[in-house]
Amino acid sequence: MKIIICGAGQVGWQIARQLSNEANDVAIVDNNPALIRRATDTLEVQGVVGYASHPDVLEQAGAAEADMIIAATHSDEVNMVTCQVAHSVFNVTRKIARLRAQSYLEPRFSELFRRDHLPIDVVINPEQEVSRAALRRFAAPSTFDVQDFLDGRVRLAGIALDAECPVLNTPLRQLTELFSSLRAIVVGVRRAGKLFAPEPGDQLFDGDHIYVVSESSDLARTLAIFGKPQAKQERVVIIGAGNVGLAVARALESQPDRVRVKVIERDRARAEIAADALQRTIVLHGDGMDSTLLAEAGVETADAVLVVTDDDKTNLLSSVRAKAMGSKLAIALVNDPSLVPLLDHLGIDAHINPRATTVSSILRHVRHGRVRSIYTIGDGEAEVIEAQVLSTSPLAGRTIAEIGFPEGALVGAVMKNGTFVKPTGATELAEGDLLVIFALSKDVPEIERLLQVAVEYF
Questions:
Q1: What is the distance in angstroms between the CA of the first residue and the CA of the last residue of the chain?
Q2: String of b and e for 174-197 (b: at least 16 CB within 10 Å)?
């Protein structure tokens, strides 16, 4: 595919890296020469310096032959105009835009993105994606990573194993025999910094970080087996009342189980907006790093503290202080990936990476085959792909063992006619089945090939 990526920041660079590694023809556009130089020096991509919304710049990037354009600059308006130019001047088939302003996303303005108005096929909103990620964290607080698949029926959970885990040094094959009714599969293991797809004879050790695909109703049991019993979140403190913090507070207010929420916001005007928008949530105006204010918010008895300001260092320091004061769980929004290795040393339980959530959302619309959802693990080291089996794909009518998936890939879940099936080698796949597949990045192209329609279909 010929793909043009507009914006060479963290999101654009990550998408360009993954797509260029899969032998796509990628061009990346940005008006910052240093960012373009970084991209061309480290990736197999064409770099174009200029404003992405200018027709001559898009022409230089090869828009006349492009199959897709991804507008991910820092300006919503530039992204929208870029998609309009790509459509009107170059007739680009697929147009994806990252839009941050909430006003553009209100249902009453949905007609704006019709083909005869602003022809954007897919709108990605980072704040919405981050808010959903935060709520998933609250639902599974003992995990370091969590993502839903198959309309919430299946959940991917990242679990950090420690000396208290009761199933250490047990082969995975034996775990399957011991818990035969458990609808969960370990699909990935990170050990000594290396991520791999485990074999049935592999054991789990203290310090391993594992990824488990589980039916959602079995997740609590799964976590208990690995020594991470589920804890209920009844008291939550949110630091930062921007779009993310406000969306999370609203969602917590609407839950059937009562959650006591307090919000801290440094900007007075923003605090007043949050106070007007929320019904049962107490909003405090002040600095989220102020220990006196944290004490007033009840951090010492909080089940969780979520820090989502627009400054990474504030998020980290506020999380550390909240944990020191007694909060059971601290979750920080971290934009800079170079800061992530510090989290374990600082005692921060989990983090949310807006770049990763946005990249995953965009890649979902890039993959071939009937791909319904994608979640990127780590720094693009692996993907978890939700897809549907097509009638003439190489998967249909064959068992998992017969298909011969690459060694870096595992099927974690199968949904047949709305019924969850724990996959084994003998599971036969049929047209319409839904799959959740873990795949290391090097094996994603092969998985993508298996998901596509066979040539004879045409």
A1: 19
A2: ebbeeeeebbbbbbbbbbeeebeb
What's the CA gap between 349 and 144, in Å, rounded?
Answer: 7
Q: How far apart are CA 100 and CA 47, in angstroms?
A: 25
Beta-sheet strand order (sheet of 46-49):
46-49, 25-30, 2-6, 68-71, 94-98, 122-124
Going residue by residue through the chain (458 aa), what tens digit of pLDDT does each one get? 899 999 999 889 989 988 888 778 999 999 999 999 999 999 999 999 999 999 999 999 999 999 999 999 999 999 999 999 999 999 999 999 999 887 887 777 777 777 778 888 888 888 888 888 888 888 788 888 888 999 889 999 999 999 999 999 999 999 989 998 999 999 999 999 899 999 999 999 999 999 999 999 999 999 999 998 877 778 999 999 998 999 999 999 988 888 899 999 999 999 999 999 999 999 999 999 999 999 999 999 999 999 999 899 999 999 999 999 999 989 999 988 788 888 878 888 888 888 778 887 787 777 655 778 888 887 778 999 999 998 888 899 999 999 989 999 999 999 999 899 999 999 999 999 999 999 999 998 899 888 875 433 32
Structure tokens at 44: 């197999």
Range 267-272, long-range pairs (CB < 8 A, 24+ positions): 267/241, 270/241, 270/242, 271/241
- Give the Å distances, CA to CA, from 402 to 374, 396, 411: 25, 11, 13
Locus of tokens 């919405």: 128
Dist CA 337 CA 334 (whole Å):
7
The pTM (predicted TM-score) of the whole model is 0.73
DSSP secondary structure letters along 50-111: S-TTSHHHHHHTTGGG-SEEEE-SS-HHHHHHHHHHHHHTT--SEEEEE---GGGG-GGGGG
Question: How many Å apart are CA 90 and CA 77, to the nearest integer?
Answer: 19
Round to whole Å and give the CA distance between 262 and 294: 10
According to DSSP H, which parts of 339-380 are helical?
342-346, 354-364
Longest dimension (CA), the chain: 69
Q: Which of 295, 201, 136 is nearest to 284 (CA)?
A: 295
What would the two tokens of residue 6 be?
């507009």
Residues 6+ apart with CB under 8 A from 121: 94, 95, 96, 365
CA atoms within 13 A on the CB side of 133: 28
Closest CA to 157 of 436, 442, 444, 445: 436
